[in-house]
What we know:
Elements (H helix, E strand, L loop, with lengths): L1 H23 L33 H10 L5 H12 L7 E10 L10 E7 L6 E7 L5 E9 L1 E7 L6 E6 L17 E4 L10 E2 L8 E3 L8 E4 L4 E3 L4 E7 L11 E6 L3 E5 L18 E6 L9 E10 L4 E10 L5 E8 L10
Helix pairs in contact: 1-3
Amino acid sequence: xxxxxxxxxxxxxxxxxxxxxxxxxxxxxxxxxxxxxxxxxxxxxxxxxxxxxxxxxxxxxxxxxxxxxxxxxxxxxxxxxxxxxxxxxxxxxxxxxxxxxxxxxxxxxxxxxxxxxxxxxxxxxxxxxxxxxxxxxxxxxxxxxxxxxxxxxxxxxxxxxxxxxxxxxxxxxxxxxxxxxxxxxxxxxxxxxxxxxxxxxxxxxxxxxxxxxxxxxxxxxxxxxxxxxxxxxxxxxxxxxxxxxxxxxxxxxxxxxxxxxxxxxxxxxxxxxxxxxxxxxxxxxxxxxxxxxxxxxxxxxxxxxxxxxxxxxxxxxxxxxxxxxxxxxxxxxxxxxxxxxxxx
Length: 344
């Protein structure tokens, strides 16, 4: 409950920042965007000229701090500074220290690094490039902005990208630079790719399946990508109507592979299915009861799968929500029976 209260307080405070900024604007002013978006290699068309800072009385800020003692000091400090200066977010020092290593934690030299950050430049974003040294280290220093995306890659390796926030400690990915503790980017050296069977079709990577909400099953034929009364994957969902008093409901979801099983997948490089038969579970299910403190309104999971005889191995990802029957699902598998799931 304390975490939930803290989250609500932070959201209210950040909303107050937006209201005060909005009310302090003059109609003829061009203002800094409230929610800048970084696009890899992209350019922003918004101009950041002719900005003026909005001011409020320090006593009001002190009152807000005193009335919300659960708010972290760093967040309160951010709120104060961003209210005093609407451009505060885009003026933060950007320094970054990283290191490129392979799956064995050996350094990857000469990896290409591309930095994109949003700032007060005429285009709204700036960019820079670098290369990792012989020990895999790289850096970017003495820039200013709010948030940055770091993309890294090298021929023969899988690429990676991560985003970092420099202004608002309440946002995800907040980053404090530390030269002695660089951010590690794992690049996996590509192995032998294989031809995989995939559920992807056309422009949409997901299958939309709508099983009945009373628990009656539907089946997915993984070999032919057909939903019907027969298949290797059984899907069941039961979802009650929304309780408007609690804004929740009681609901559940189940996946079954009778002749095989599933293992939850959280790997950075999911290119090889596990080989231990004992780890594959034929049934995976979830139950959420109306009013429970750990109730969730959505479910998103990824699994290694084994099915058929002789067995085939693959990956399936599923996503569903409490109040809609729909299930979004995609999968791939190796038709040759190998555990190798690395695409060509």
